[in-house]
Amino acid sequence: MLSFDASFFQDLSRGVWRSDVVAVLLVVFLVRLFLKSRSRIRSTQLHGPKSNNVLFGVLPQVSPGSGGMDNYFKKAIEDYGTVFNLPSGFGRQDLVGCDAKAISHILSRDTFTYYRPAFARVLTDILFGKGIFSLENDGHRRLRKALTPAFSNAAIRSYIETFNDNSSKMKAAWDSIIDAAAGGSATIEVQQWMNNLALENLGRTGFSHHFGTLEGKRPELIDAFDSFQSPGNMGFASKMVFLLSTNFPVLLNLPTKHTKMMRRVRYAMKGIADDVLEKAKAELETNAAGEKITDKSIVGLLIKAESTSGNLSMTSEEVLAQMNSLFFAGYETTSTTLTWALIELCRNPQVQEKLRQEVNTKLQGADPTWEEITLGLPYLDAVTQETLRVHGPVHNIRREAFEDDVLPLSKPIQTASGTSTSEIIVAKGQGIHIPTTCMNTSEDLWGPDANQYKPERWLGELSPGAQAIQGHHHVLSFGEGQRFCLGRHFALANFKSALVNLVRHYSFELPNGKDTIIGKHFGAINRPKVEGEKGPRVPLLIRRVD
């Protein structure tokens, strides 16, 4: 991997170095072309889209926040098949894989043969510190093992009471809004409320920290997240650097507007993490009253890891990095999926009513328990899985081959030379794209109704194509393999408990009925928005039904 000292780029950003910079970049460009030409010789050459953009290839169309990633991949799959090459700048040819057997092979070798791309590791280092998102091999396994008890079934079972309590607080706030409105209903912007609920659930259960978002407080962390999630805030120079960093990760050391925003997010998270750790350590020492810090909570496990010297020990820097990572991962992924679920319940009122009937019949007005949300409400599970399938928060899993490898395929494809093959060679350093949205909504895998929202599909046997997909319930929204989402059971319990408490108390309608146009606010996570609203706002007409 080519690299430069960060000070070189800081000097460059101040306008110094002229001809020397041009010369160095020319050498880098030529070396990169040479290395990529060798990579092309070693890897199987496939069909794929062309690009005249030497610097970026087609990366502007498939980068997070571009707004066209899913459609671009779907069209390319129609034109070139389930496995094809993708030009990504500087002579680089990435591989796009929508073949279930190939994906299973790649993800089963995560952190060994396949790594997160170098630019993604640098990006997460800047945003979170050196934590579970950026480490590979033994370092990644060590951190996962240390955190696993916080996401066990026993731990999550103990969180359900807090999830229900936070839902009750949100209900009290919504009831006040409805009471103040005329006609027994009110229009409420649900996306921010889902953000508030998800953050409060994570704060209280994982870190014994009250953000106060359900009582109207707005911590700096939310503003920092929102600014980072808005690609329009990047500016031209930031976008250029971000795209170039795919091939030259060290460029992320440049002080662009975007990297400054990332550091602002990290600073905001660090402030909260420091406060949480200080209070948690004091409570453990004095057995102070209040929400109990247990050894199986996230913060309890991190404190334990920091104070031990065994195989699961962490440095102070790693402890903060884990907290930063989990704050970010547990915030908008769950809340955005909840918002999509409410939108689909509005679009499909028969689904909304069927879910409400199941909840009311099974619970009889009581709060849901762990056993009920995991095993006792089959239609709730169907709605959850269908929402994750159609509206999963992750749209593209990117990896990079750490060594040469051979990918097996589900069915033969034609190479660029016209020969048929059931396996392809992947070269060391070659980038990999796994378009999860395309896999989750592929008609070849899920049938002709793949793009329709139909929870009923989960009440029977799935198609053989869908069953071939490795992943939670054959959906790739949580990833799979060595890097599957560590907190997926936490996220599912969080999601299900919130949805149960929402549908048993309220009915939901889109502001303009079924004709309401739902767009997307593009960013690191694509959030829904009602067309005409400024930003990712989703106002819904809400009525009490209890």
Helix-strand category: alpha+beta
Sheet-strand content, in percent, reads: 5-15%
Shape: globular
For the termini, the CA-CA separation is 61 Å
Low-pLDDT windows of residues: 1-22
Number of helical runs? 22
Mean pLDDT: 85
- Total beta strands: 12
Strand order of the largest sheet: 1-2-8-5-3
Give the topology, please.
Blueprint: H1 6-13, H2 19-42, H3 59-62, H4 69-80, E1 83-87, E2 93-97, H5 100-108, E3 114-115, H6 118-128, H7 137-147, H8 153-180, E4 185-189, H9 190-207, H10 220-228, H11 236-244, H12 257-286, H13 298-307, H14 316-329, H15 332-347, H16 349-363, H17 370-376, H18 378-391, E5 397-401, E6 405-414, E7 420-426, E8 431-434, H19 436-440, H20 443-446, H21 464-467, H22 488-503, E9 506-509, E10 518-521, E11 527-530, E12 539-544
Parallel strand pairs: 2-8
Antiparallel strand pairs: 1-2, 3-5, 4-12, 5-8, 6-7, 9-12, 10-11
Description:
With 546 residues, this protein is of the alpha+beta class. The protein has a domain at 1-42. Helices cover 51% and strands 11% of the residues. The chain contains 22 helices and twelve strands. The protein has helices at residues 6-13, 19-42, 59-62, 69-80, 100-108, 118-128, 137-147, 153-180, 190-207, 220-228, 236-244, 257-286, 298-307, 316-329, 332-347, 349-363, 370-376, 378-391, 436-440, 443-446, 464-467, 488-503; strands spanning 83-87, 93-97, 114-115, 185-189, 397-401, 405-414, 420-426, 431-434, 506-509, 518-521, 527-530, 539-544. The chain has a five-stranded mixed sheet. The radius of gyration is 24 Å and the shape is globular. It starts with 5 loop residues before the first helix and ends with a strand. Mean pLDDT is 85; it is low at 1-22.
